[in-house]
Amino acid sequence: MTKILRILNRFNVGGPTYNVAYLTKYISDEYQTTLIGGEKEDSEASSEYILQELDIPYQVIPEIKRGISIGRDFKAFRKVVEIIREERPDIVHTHASKAGMIGRLAAMYCHVPYIFHTFHGHIFHSYFGKAKTTFFIVLERFLARHTTAIIAISDIQKHELGTIYKICNPAKIEVVPLGFDLRRFSENSDEKRKQFRTQYSIADNEIAIGIVGRLATVKNHQLFIDAIVQCKKLSPNTPIRAFIIGDGELKKELQQYCTDKNIPFNNEKDSTFDRLVTFTSWIKDVDRAYAGLDIVALTSHNEGTPVSIIEAQAAGKPIVSTNVGGIRDIVCEGETALLSEQTVDDFSEKLHKVISDDALRTKMGEKCKTFSSWKFSYERLCSDMEKVYKKHVHTK
Length: 396
Fold this sequence. Notes:
Low-confidence stretches: none
Largest sheet: 7 strands, parallel
CATH class of the largest domain: Alpha Beta
Strand content: 15-25%
Shape: globular
Distance between the termini: 10 Å
Mean pLDDT: 93
Radius of gyration: 21 Å
Number of domains: 2
Order of helices and strands: EHEHEHEHEHEHEHEHEHEEHEHEEHHH
Helix content: 40-55%
């Protein structure tokens, strides 16, 4: 049996937790997996419930956190080294940037035979200034030289890593798209839709547009807010409501932006919901939210494979998104999604097109359901990852 130590950045709500959870739970019996990861940030929602619902043992390493801290990072490194020495894995597989740095250094130090790293996105633009970005690129190139294989989650991401940023030779990069259990996004949709729309006082004739994710700079929520206002001006007689689903360090700043622009908004503590924009904070049963929405938007500056777009398609919701990162690899452009430049005018034009055409929304929604069913299943994820392991790992 091949032993794997799987290391995640942190257990916060998002695609990486689902990815490691399904790989840990459903990969074949040829593999025995130990799962560890960092602690969520204060502004994030915990994803540990995902692991608990799947009955997956895991260990939290509090010292694995975002940002660089020599003392804290060294403590995390020592803890991972101790776990490696205790578990004696054949494979260390790290997921996302911080886990990739600490986990791979520890695996190298302990002479682990095989080291894999999955990029769930990257931080090579739209995150830091030029000097810091250059440092991370140089660091990733060093780590890649000591990594058995790099896993990209889309063809576009592979191109970025191998050709644009030259992290390693493209031949060293394997593409394994994310996978999920998407059944809940198509089950009991009518009941879930009624629950969500009743909770937030959404009238039957109102078109509900949602954006799901961390309230962070890279997600560019200000573009979403501006586009909603623009669409309202383009069709003043069309009743629309916008929902910002998630939380993060920019929440107060975004609410202040609405105040400064005289944009009426509700937050999750209000007893009635009747404003143009509603901040809901995190919604644990997000399948209920997708059922209640009519359109799902994404306005990011940079993305790997955004889970919200995959989930929305599984729920049969048309997408309007900025054309960044790996987005094109996870949608059918023009059929399940309209892709936009990162400008208010272009994004508003695309969003307004979907808002104003009932038949188009229905047609896109039907295509979404058929497109997502196998492409993003956890069965396909596990099958693909096993093929990668078998290709690179030579057991006795």
